[in-house]
Amino acid sequence: xxxxxxxxxxxxxQFERLVSAASAPSCPHCGAVDLQRLLSLTAPQGQSRQVVAxxxxxxxxxxxxxxxxxxxxxxxxx
Length: 78
Prior knowledge:
Elements: E1 3-8, E2 14-18, E3 35-38, H1 48-62, H2 70-75
Antiparallel strand pairs: 1-2, 1-3
């Protein structure tokens, strides 16, 4: 089931919902079913390595090395 972004035409609130093909979502704020489906942003492609590397650098700055293997710890800047 995909996640879609919606905007309620009654109250103007924007929200996400996990929607199957057979279901009709309703607004969580006012309960209206008159919704506009919006284009959702996708995850940036090819950047997961950079995100992981950035998270590991942040962990290294904070001194969290418990999830690193010995080979990875050897590569860290001293």
